[in-house]
Amino acid sequence: MYRLKYECLKCGICCSIPQNLKDDYIKRIPLYPEEVDRLIEIAKYRNLPFKVKEDLVFPDIKNKKILVLTYRFILRPQGRCVFYDVNKGCIIHEEKPYACQAYPLAIRRIDSFNIEITIDPLCNFVSENYASLKDISIDRIKDIFVDEYPKAEKFYEKNKRLQLKIRRLEEENKIQISRQITLKQFNYALNNWDRKEIRVK
Ligand code: SF4
Ligand code: SF4
User: Fold this and answer.
1) Which range of residues forms the domain containing residue 40?
2) Ligand 1, atom 5, residue with closest C-alpha
3) DSSP assignment, residue 57?
């Protein structure tokens, strides 16, 4: 019986902004603060224009701080990750962030505090095998993405630890996250409050 196994087609789609998508399309490859620190050092050494933007943030109204949980790569203007070489692919394969290690498995955010492991349909391997990958069980995902699933689990666990840390800080009354904030208030906070990174091992 034919058993589907994931094999990267080395097309580079996951490291680039697809050309058919609009200018305002945002590709989210999440990076933890400590990954950003490491990538800054690698980029400095290789003289690459690595830039990130805050991604998952929470407004802490008790301390008037923006809590930063993750960043994401800025892929413009070059349209692809600075660590992607058109001939060689990813040039930091051994050091790439969790999100890239797990890909095409990804973490989908159900809401601010709940996540699940999914398969990214934008990956070429996934779109070519979509009929076999649609609505499959976790056991099938483990079987098809043998190397990627353990990495996705680590990625998932790290996300969970971050969410738990936020909850614990709230319970200890060290922070207070507003869930009622209007867009206007949120934008004011983004423009005026200092940042505090939330890190977990
Ligand atoms: S770090 Fe490597 S795998 Fe990740 S987006 Fe950049 S080039 Fe692609
Ligand atoms: S989009 Fe999928 S098949 Fe293409 S390089 Fe990325 S992981 Fe590999």
Assistant:
1) 13-197
2) 15
3) E
The pLDDT value given to residue 120: 92
In the chain the beta strands, taken as DSSP E runs, fall at: 30-31, 52-54, 57-60, 65-68, 71-73, 84-85, 89-90, 105-111, 114-119, 194-197
For ligand 2, atom 4, which residue shows the shortest CA distance?
Answer: 11
- 109 inside domain: yes
Q: Check residue 135 and give its pLDDT.
A: 85
> Among 14, 81, 93, 123, which is best to mutate for testing ligand 1, by the most ligand atoms less than 8 A from CB?
81
Overall pTM > 0.90 = no
- Is 71 part of a structural domain of the chain? yes
**Averaged over 45-67, what is the pLDDT?**
94
Neighbours of 71 (CB within 10 A): 23
